[in-house]
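Here is the promised in-class demo. Please do not try to memorize the tokens; focus on the logic of going from shape to residues.
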């Protein structure tokens, strides 16, 4: 069985989060949904993510604090920010970071996810 990369999504809008998860799971990724940065940190501690996908404006802990804290554990963790608010984009966050402004296409999101993951040789049974 192929190893499915773990994508951690921090998004407080349930409809958006569910749609993202369903789409990314259909693309072959293992997805965990959280509603804020605190939940995302808890999940990542138990099951480290290959990529963090985060909104910026969330209750309890927003995206900027989440990115800074999760990267203390894993400085190389790729991050995709999904936001409709350009004023919430962190200005000085080192590392691999992609910003998608809402609304964005799901095909663009998958393209960026694939570009951030290490290349893996896979075989498909057809």
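The designed amino acids, position by position:
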């Amino acid at each position: 069985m192929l190893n499915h990369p773990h994508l951690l999504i921090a998004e407080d809008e349930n409809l958006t989060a569910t749609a993202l998860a369903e789409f990314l799971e259909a693309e072959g990724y293992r997805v965990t949904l959280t509603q804020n940065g605190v939940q995302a940190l808890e999940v990542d501690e138990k099951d480290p993510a290959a990529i963090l996908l985060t909104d910026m404006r969330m209750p309890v802990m927003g995206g900027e604090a989440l990115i800074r804290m999760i990267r203390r554990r894993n400085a190389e963790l790729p991050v995709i920010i999904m936001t409709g608010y350009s004023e919430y984009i962190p200005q000085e966050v080192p590392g691999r970071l992609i910003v998608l402004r809402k609304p964005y296409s799901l095909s663009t999101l998958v393209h960026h996810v694939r570009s951030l993951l290490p290349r893996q040789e896979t075989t498909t049974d057809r």
